[in-house]
Amino acid sequence: MIRKLFTVAAVMTFVFAISTNAHALLISDAGVVGAADGLAGDNPGNDADDIAQAILNLTGSLATGSCAVPPRTCWTGTVDYSDTIVTVPNGKTDVPNDGSDPIAIPGGYKYAIVKYDGQQAGWVLFDLTVYGYNLPANSNTIWGAAGTDQYRISSFTVFNPVPDGGSSAALLGAALLGLNVLRRKLNG
Questions:
Q1: I need a labelling partner for 13 at 20 to 30 A (CA). Which of 21, 38, 95, 104 fits?
Q2: Highest mean pLDDT range out of 9-13, 14-18, 73-77?
Q3: pLDDT at 186
Q4: How far apart are CA 166 and CA 177, in angstroms?
Q5: Main-chain dihedrals φ then ψ at residue 160, nearest 5 degrees
Q6: Strand, coil or helix: 105
Q7: Which residue intervals of the chain are DSSP H helices?
Q8: Strand ranges (DSSP E) for 60-171?
Q9: In 3-state terms, what secondary structure has residue 9?
């Protein structure tokens, strides 16, 4: 039984490892909500939610326009999100420049806005429920040349917690059932 579990776990890990999103990033990729140019003085800890909401407000018309305060150039795809950003405590995470690609984002959130290379590049807002939780470490070709490692991710901020759909309750129920079976076996 244990051998089967290890085999299943190994296969799942392999499938997960080869199904990553490590490719050139395009504004037309499914799950890319939009992007905004970075400006001098941008602060990922303070500006992320405002920029994410400004990008969401512009969605729906494959638009290029001015968004956020101070004004900056933004691009969006054709999907109209009509959503409101819900901040979460400690939602911002700095990413070490250790060569990892893709960058794994924690599950349980609908959106992540990613800051690429300080003030040099900009911000990309992802719908994690569509794009997935492995994001490209480099922003090419939105900023930077294709096939380069220009403008690497420096931080990300997650928004809008997503309910787990009952899987936690199911796991708790299974654990309690297992404890009950174990208790009966030990007592009987």
A1: 95
A2: 73-77
A3: 85
A4: 17
A5: 50, 80
A6: coil
A7: 2-18, 44-58, 128-131, 167-187
A8: 64-67, 72-76, 87-94, 103-104, 109-116, 122-127, 134-135, 153-161
A9: helix
- Note the pLDDT of residue 166: 63
CB-side exposure of 80: number of CA atoms within 13 Å?
A: 3
CA terminus-to-terminus distance, the chain:
24
Longest dimension (CA), the chain: 72
Closest CA to 82 of 65, 64, 58, 66: 58
Cα distance between residue 85 and residue 123, in whole Å: 15
Quote the distance between the C-alpha of residue 33 and its chain's center.
Answer: 11
Closest CA to 83 of 127, 39, 146, 135: 127
Identity (one letter) of the amino acid at 50?
Answer: D
User: Is a pLDDT exceeding 70 seen at residue 13?
Assistant: no
Q: Which among 41-50, 98-107, 146-155 has the top mean pLDDT? A: 98-107
Rounded (5°) CA angle 26-29-33: 95
| pLDDT category of residue 165 using cuts at 50, 70 and 90 | low
Domain boundaries, the chain: 2-187
At residue 61, the pLDDT reads 62
